[in-house]
Design a protein that fits this description.
The chain is an alpha+beta fold and 525 residues long. The protein folds into four domains: 39 residues, no CATH class; 80 residues; 157 residues; 132 residues, Helix Hairpins, CATH 1.10.287. 63% of the residues lie in helices and 6% in strands. The protein has 14 helices and four strands. Strands 2-3-1-4 form a four-stranded antiparallel β-sheet. Helix 6 packs across helix 10 and helix 10 runs antiparallel to helix 13. It is elongated and about 210 Å long. The two termini are 55 Å apart.
């Protein structure tokens, strides 16, 4: 069985300490005796102990260390008044209260061990500098000093990292926010061509003064002319108005001048889409539905040109409004005119039919029928008289034969005449219609003519009413604010645009930074 080697721990300089401790009482014995001043010594000792305790308090000892010092002081037979006083008393005895001692202290001195208690004062021994072996120092700093130094080192490291991160943050802000903002500000303050705006405002009104009832509540107000205002605004913002303005006043030539800055200058060979984009940028229109006012702002590099552009656009708006009013008037009257023309044609046809019937037959068939009816009545009366006389002759005992024959012949003649007149009313003659059919046709023609007259009268009234309504649909442009040339440049607004650019770049940088931080955290987790 192999035994593990065991190392023995020896106290270096044990004999020297023993000799020093043994010589100390002898040296103290030879000291001259001096009279003691009890009061002064006790007062000085209390002041010195209080100062030592204050210094120990400032060392920042932990509670565990103070408890260890108190136990060690009690073990050495000391009576401390507090934990800090225990530390002071142990140090006064030359004992380090925080030194870790080994579990076993083997002291070998020629096999002799002293069982007597060590009552000598254990003071540290001074060693001369020359001839001292180069051994590691056994002096250690207090845990409070080490902890304070470590905390200070951590704080220095944190401060150094904060300074580095702050420097990187400032560099990123300068590169991605401040530098673009400076470039934008330089452009707006030193490079951008000043633009002069000409503002105007106009309103579209109707000619009517309103009607009664619920239907006329909004007549003559901005709500009644709202569609026309919106249509006019859309026309002024359209490519048609831009092409007319370019053809008449040279919109392309004005914005293609070489003294305009490159970002606002228009290419001389630019397409209509590019010109229209620039037109929408420098011609701004807005419609206020509550007031019914259209506000227009036209900008250009020359204030006189801006005013000229505004006047021409207002003229286009007036033409557009006149066109809309004309279309509404024509649309309202066109239907009434067509109805009137149809009524006139129907009346002409009815009258022509009646004239044709009168030409082909008796002029007054009703009068003719009345005459025939009167004749028939007369014949019937005579016939009744002859039949009565004939009956009287037949009732005689000896009737007169000649008289009877004459009465019989008269009765036959009257009956023949009566049948003839009746046939004239109901039977048609050769090439002519009967009086009854002719009368009925003429009456129907007269009824048609009367109906055509009524329709014609209604059509005339409808046309008159349509003309009145058409006059109410008339729209006209009322110019509230006339365009005036501007003396000072309206655009660019250098300060506002620079601040806006700073906010935009800051927002973009913040969004990218947050996105990168979130992605980094997701990847690291």
């Amino acid at each position: 069985m192999i035994m593990k080697p065991k190392a023995r721990k020896f106290r270096i300089r044990r004999s020297e300490v023993t000799q020093t401790a043994a010589a100390a009482p002898a040296a103290m014995a030879h000291l001259p005796e001096h009279p003691r001043h009890v009061d002064q010594d006790s007062t000085a000792r209390e002041i010195l102990s209080a100062m030592n305790i204050d210094e120990i308090r400032r060392e920042g000892l932990t509670g565990r260390q103070l408890r260890m010092a108190r136990r060690l002081a009690l073990k050495h037979g000391l009576a401390p008044s507090s934990d800090f006083d225990a530390v002071r008393l142990l140090r006064a005895r030359g004992i380090d209260p925080f030194e870790r001692s080994g579990l076993l202290e083997i002291v070998a001195s020629n096999g002799q061990h002293s069982g007597e208690p060590d009552l000598r004062v254990q003071l540290p021994q001074t060693v001369p500098a020359e001839g001292r072996p180069a051994l590691p120092s056994t002096s250690t700093r207090s845990p409070a000093d080490r902890r304070a130094e470590e905390i200070m080192q951590i704080q220095r490291d944190i401060a150094r990292r904060r300074r580095r991160k702050l420097a990187l943050l400032l560099a990123r802000l300068a590169a991605f926010v401040m530098l673009p903002t400076i470039l934008v500000g330089y452009y707006y303050y030193a490079v951008a061509t000043p633009m002069y705006a000409s503002k105007s405002a106009f309103q579209i009104l109707s000619a009517d003064g309103g009607t009664g009832g619920m239907g006329g509540l909004f007549q003559g107000t901005s709500f009644a002319t709202g569609p026309d205002s919106i249509a006019t605004q859309e026309y002024l913002e359209s490519k048609d108005a831009m092409l007319r303005l370019d053809h008449e006043l040279g919109l392309r030539a004005h914005f293609s001048q070489p003294w305009i800055d490159p970002l606002q200058r228009l290419d001389p060979d630019a397409s209509n889409e590019a010109i229209y984009k620039l037109y929408r940028k420098y011609v701004k229109l807005g419609y206020d539905p509550t007031e019914g006012v259209i506000r227009m702002e036209v900008s250009s590099a020359d204030p006189a040109v801006s005013t000229e552009f505004s006047d021409r656009l207002i003229k286009y708006a007036e033409e557009r409004i006149d066109g809309l009013s004309q279309n509404k008037r024509q649309g309202a009257v066109r239907t009434a005119d067509q109805s009137l023309e149809r009524a006139k044609a129907e009346r002409r046809a009815a009258q022509a039919q009646m004239v044709a019937l009168q030409e082909d037959s008796i002029l007054d068939p009703e009068g003719e029928i009345a005459g025939i009816r009167s004749l028939i009545g007369t014949v019937e009366l005579q016939l009744q008289e002859k039949e009565l006389a004939f009956s009287i002759q037949q009732n005689n005992a000896r009737p007169n034969a000649a008289r009877v024959t004459a009465l019989q012949s008269e009765i036959d003649i009257l009956r023949t005449e009566l049948d003839k007149q009746k046939r004239r009313l109901t039977e048609a003659t050769t090439g002519e219609a009967s009086l009854a059919s002719t009368t009925a046709a003429i009456q129907m023609a007269q009824a048609d003519l009367a109906t055509a007259d009524l329709v014609l009268q209604s059509a005339l009234e409808a046309k008159r009413q349509a003309e009145i309504e058409a006059n109410k649909q008339v729209r006209y442009l009322s110019l509230s604010v006339r365009p005036v040339p501007s003396q000072d440049a309206t655009y660019p607004r250098a300060f506002e645009n620079t601040v806006l650019a700073f906010l935009i770049f800051s927002g973009i940088y913040l969004m990218i930074s947050l996105t990168a931080s979130i992605l980094r955290e997701q990847v690291s987790s």
